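B., you asked whether I could sanity-check this one before it goes into the benchmark set. Here's the sequence:
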Amino acid sequence: MRARQPSDYISVRQANFCQAEEYLALCAGNRQDGAVVSFVGLVRDFNQHSQVQTLTLEHYPAMTEKSLKAIVTEARDRWPVSRVRLVHRVGTLNTGEQIVFVGVSSCHRHHAFLACEFIMDQLKTRAPFWKKEHDDTGEHWVQANQQDQQKAQQWHRQ
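And here's what the prediction gave me:
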């Protein structure tokens, strides 16, 4: 089911974002929706290698933009969402820094929660970002996480 007059904002950038500003932009002039759900992902200090100091995210812009639009379109096809805001950072980020913001508005909370979770699960597995962790032993490319793959595949069985 597709919501009327989709209003999406997708940005891939090095600059940080303000969660409050992204939320306000999602809500601005939006009187028909009763639910806004958002998620912010942060750089952890551990992952596949212990003691991560920084994380570098690389991407190919044209491929990334196409992929992110496809993920948002698929969420719209599944649930009646009104607005989607997706901000994903690239470059070198320190632990504790924000990586991603996903915000979804809908008439009902159930659809907003599902669409937000779906978008994040798909970002983890389908978006063409290459991640390199830096720790005290050097640099390590991050391999695909089997748990993330399984979670993303569950959506296609529903």
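One thing to flag: The radius of gyration is 16 Å. Otherwise nothing jumped out at me.
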